[in-house]
Amino acid sequence: MHYERIDPPCDVVAGVPEYCIEFGLLYGAFDFVIRPDGAWVFLECNATGQYGWIEDAINAPITDTIADLLAQGAA
To answer: Which Gene3D superfamilies match (predicted)?
Structure first.
């Protein structure tokens, strides 16, 4: 398998925080499928989702970012 960081579409970028606000989440692991036509399809948000398996693979500071967010608390 190959993993890479990509920029999500604007509606996904806007929708994720709206979803979190609606459900009172500070963190969620969101799963999407990108169809062959490029459309993103939302599958689920797991409030306790795992991400450690991909953090090193894509060189993303996910743990540090989540820790900073949780330390700040809800705005």
So the answer is: ATP-grasp fold, B domain
Tokens of 28: 């969620």
β-pairing, 29-34 with 40-46?
antiparallel
Tell me whether residue 60 is exposed, middle or buried, using C-beta atoms within 10 angstroms of its C-beta: 0 to 12, 13 to 18, 19 or more.
middle
Please give the Cα distance from 58 to 46 (Å, whole number): 20
Residues in the chain, total: 75
pTM to 2 decimal places = 0.80
> What digits encode the pLDDT tens for the residues 38-55?
999 999 999 888 888 899
Domain ranges of the chain: 10-72
